[in-house]
Structure formats: structure tokens, C-alpha cells
Amino acid sequence: MFSKKWFFDLESKLREMGLDSDEQSFDEILENLKHPKRVSPNQFAETVSYVILASGFNQKTAKIKHRIIMDLLKNNSNKFEILPVFKNESKIDAIITVWNNRQSLCDGFYKCQNLEEKIKYLLQISYVGETTVNHLARNLGENLPKYDRWIKRLGVVFGGDKNLNELLDKPKLKPELKQACDAMFNHLVRETGLPIGYIDVVLFRACQNHLIDMGDK
Could you say which DSSP state residue 25 is in? Predict the structure, then answer.
């Protein structure tokens, strides 16, 4: 595990299986991380909405529901026309709020001077939390990982310290666990020459689709 060949084999299998995407395709994510560009207010709102929606759904379902909801919003549909697609009223309210304020939200994001400011700014949006904020920032072109449950488990395997298992279910990411994950990412950056954000999405998809054996019984 954790070699150049191992990583590119995973990437290749995901592409062959048609699982090479998040909101964007692997190729789009990689291009956006290598050459970040300013997105439009519509693209900003769509990206935020996908992250709000995606939690709790598999990739295929999230993408279908997201596309339907975005089409409805572009056609000026109201909340009660959208709710049959996704029956979580508070999340639909959050998505509608983002859509209605997309110009000011997008402008505010790009006024931020650095990554720390951008993360704080995004955290003010409803249903963007400590884990999902990195997902959102990555989809907006920031080169960082999500530190989700899969990545944390891989970090433990990479670090070789079974004591770190005790930290996996803690509500906050503990420094020792973050250090193990960052060491894994830095190693894979050296192995592959790819951005951390891209490595993150490939590893997440590989774990989610059971392409990585972490010794579970």
C-alpha cells in the first residue's frame, strides 16, 4: 500500500468502473486544483448545494437529486415544488438561501485573502461543517483533504500506530491523527506528483467502493 503503483491502480479501477467523479469528474477536479479559476455565482451556488445535499447519499443518488434541484431553482421553483425531490426541509431552505444570495456569497468568498479566511467564511453557510467545509473548499479549487472517516482510517494504517484507532470516533480531529493523515498525503504527493486534494478524492472513492482492504473483519 501507499506506493505510486498502488495509487494509480486505484485511480485506474475507479475510472474503469465509472466512479471517477465527485460533483466534478476526476479530470475536472485535477485541472481545477492545478489551475484554480474563479467560478461564477451560479457555479458557486451549485458547488455549495452539492456539498449540503451529498452527505448521507451515495454519489450517484446525490448527483441525480442535485441536478434536478438545480434545474428547479433555475426555473424559479419554490420550496414546495423542490421538497418531493429531497424531503429535508431545513436543507432545502439552506440550498434556496445559497441560490438566492449566490452573487454576494461568491463575491465574499473571493474577497478572502487566504485559505484560513476562506474556511471561516464557508463555515458560516448553513450545513457546512468542520468536515464538509474542506470538501467544499476542495471543490472550489483549494488544495486540501477532507479528513473524513475513510481518510482518518487510512492515516492510522499508514502511521502503523494502532493506538490511533482510539481517536477515530472523536468528534474533533485530534492532532496526532491529523499528523498521521498529513504524513500519508505528503508521502503520496512525493510518490505521484499530484495535488493533495486530488489524492484525497481518489482515496475516498476507493475506500467508499471497497477497493482498499484495511483489514476489516
Answer: B
